[in-house]
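Narrative summary of target 7.
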Amino acid sequence: MRSKTITTSFGPCVVQIGEGALACLGKVVAGASSIVIVTDDVVAPLHGSKVLDALDNVNLTMHEWTVPAGEASKSLWQAESFYDFLASKGCDRSTMIVALGGGVVGDLAGFVAGTWMRGVRFVNCPTTLLAMVDASIGGKTGLNHAGRKNAVGVFHHPEAVLVDVTTLTTLDDRAFNAGMAESIKHGVIADEAFLSWQMDHAQEIKGRDPRVLEELVARNIEIKAAHVEQDERDQSGVRAKLNFGHTIGHAIEVVCDYALPHGECIGLGMLAAGRVAIGRGLVDETVRDRLSAALSSFSLPCRFTFQGDISAMMSALRGDKKSVGGVVRFVLPTKIGEVTVGHDVGDAEIESAIAELME
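Modeled conformation, tokenized:
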């Protein structure tokens, strides 16, 4: 079991990583008046019993709130339903909310935890690789609204994140591989050696070797935590580096009505950003080739099918929260292991990069 403490303005966030990490939950909930476990209808039957076992000897009132699996649950109407549930159970400021699931559950639970009674305690128990390496830490919560990804949100850090890598055995291959896109991103923006390590250990990672997964998740959390601790509220530009691939990636998600997994869209977005960087002379083709090879190692697509008008994607890009005054801002690589932020990219560059991705 590995442990990492992330320093935040909310206090320390303790991350436990390894086999059986969920068993630590009983100690984490100390001091709460009641617990609300938030999960979805896919994760509940798979891993709900592990949480209940961890809380077996805890003398606290427990409630469960289960939402439909999928991106549609990242919505204001679902949050409102959750508020109604909390009110009906008499949940107060000493209630703790525990998220058990992937990024959707973590975002919804974190948003409600950050806004119920102006903020209650929150613990994240991610069960997908994507959530483990990225979404479960950093304090950003987000709900989709009016066709915009993560348009509504608050900063609210969990006080603990319990990463039990054994939960990954229940993920299908596509969902597991999608999580690797964010891991590859961390290598591209901050650590060339880590990117190489992932490719060298691709078979063990895909084979779900728990020791290799523990190392994979731990290194990802170290990279993301370093960015968060330097720029917690995304104001200096350091944390913005984590958005590499997300500008076009989020637009692809929106125009495809979330039919493609988030990680696949981010992988495509990274390739598009790489093409823009090549056009500007920031990198050469070898950088994009290496990124393509890394994505392909985990069966992540380098092209996608889109039958709609590219103008719809451009509209989604301008509506993204990272655009300023309708101008789309990009994170672009300068080499493997380093990116720069704040690039104003014109429509022609964007359309050309997107067109190259389309089948």
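Residues 328 and 346 are 8 Å apart (CA to CA).
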